[in-house]
Design brief:
Layout lengths: L2 H14 L1 H33 L4 E7 L2 E6 L5 E6 L9 E2 L3 E5 L4 E6 L10 E5 L7 E4 L4
Antiparallel strand pairs: 1-2, 2-6, 3-5, 3-7, 4-6, 7-8
Helix pairs in contact: 1-2
Amino acid sequence: MPVWLQVTLPIFTAFLGGSVGFGFGRLNSALDRRQGRREIEAARRKADRERLPAFKVEHVSNALYRIVNVGDKDATAVHFSDRDESYAQIQSRPERIRLDIGSAYEFGIATADALPLPGRLLVMCDEFDEPKPVRVPLQ
């Protein structure tokens, strides 16, 4: 409720009294309810902004791995960043796929003596502003 109304409302109510004061009381409670609804809506929007996908890489077998969305929100346009030096090692990489909460996508990582297993992969999706590193587990 605006400050000027908070200050003047009790003065008008006390000055006029009776049924007019009751009318101001109803106005005051209506303004309070409206402010309460605004605060609830703002809290809901803030909670939606804080919900983000999160990813985990799991080893399946041999050179096969899977990326799993373990976050609080579905992820769209999931892919690995080509800025990562291990990008060339990834086989069957996800190309802008959708990963719902708890869903997974399998891919391979080529390794050799000259190409050790990368320690992390850079994952991108529409919900991120920049690539997020995800640890690759050892076999």
